[in-house]
Amino acid sequence: MSLPANKDRIGDLIVWGASGHALVVADIIRLQGLYRIVAFYVDQASRTGEFCGRPLVTQIGELRAHIRQGTRSMILAIGNCTTRLRLAEFAQNEGFELATAIHPRATVASDVSIGEGTVVSAGAVINPGGVVGKNAIVNTCSSVDHESVIEDGAHIGPGARLGGRVRVGRAAWIGIGATIKDRVTVGANSIVGAGSVVLKDVPENTVAAGTPARVVRDVYPDEN
Hints:
Blueprint: E1 11-16, H1 20-32, E2 35-41, E3 50-51, E4 54-57, H2 60-68, E5 73-76, H3 81-93, E6 97-98, E7 101-102, E8 107-108, E9 113-114, E10 119-120, E11 125-126, E12 131-132, E13 137-138, E14 143-144, E15 149-150, E16 155-156, E17 161-162, E18 167-168, E19 173-174, E20 179-180, E21 185-186, E22 191-192, E23 197-198, E24 206-209, E25 214-218
Parallel strand pairs: 1-2, 1-5, 2-4, 5-6, 7-10, 8-11, 9-12, 10-13, 11-14, 12-15, 13-16, 14-17, 15-18, 16-19, 17-20, 18-21, 19-22, 20-23, 22-24
Antiparallel strand pairs: 3-4, 24-25
């Protein structure tokens, strides 16, 4: 994918990350038409060249040089929930403002609150009364029904379905194709396995899987 160099955009932006998820985020940024991506940042000195037609930045000094040159906006394209929250805090401490990326073909009710740094992908639906926190991901073709709350850093995987008044805790990860019954809470830093059907609350820091979903173990350090 080639990103246009249209100087009429509102502002310049750096994407932190250069993997498959970064491809998705970059496409949303391009379609929104609010920013021009000037670089992708990865903390991997062994990587060189370009990504999506833009330079790869691998040194913190280069990142700070972009700030001095006037690039103030950044978005995190990192899949791991706790890592994304940690790096978002670092980026803000460095002086960046976090952009929000909402695909033009996502359906978001007019009263939904979406925090900075959050990514809403193509085909996602967020219904009335919803609240989505900062640096969250509502991924491709997922649905979040009425009055549900997605806390900071949580990830709603592709094709996941959340009933009304569901709460997904901070940095929790709902796997691809999972279904969460209405009024269920998934605790902070927990993981719901792909395709699982969750009928009752999931405690914090646990992995739940199956149909119906049951807690199978604790979350490993740095797993989420």
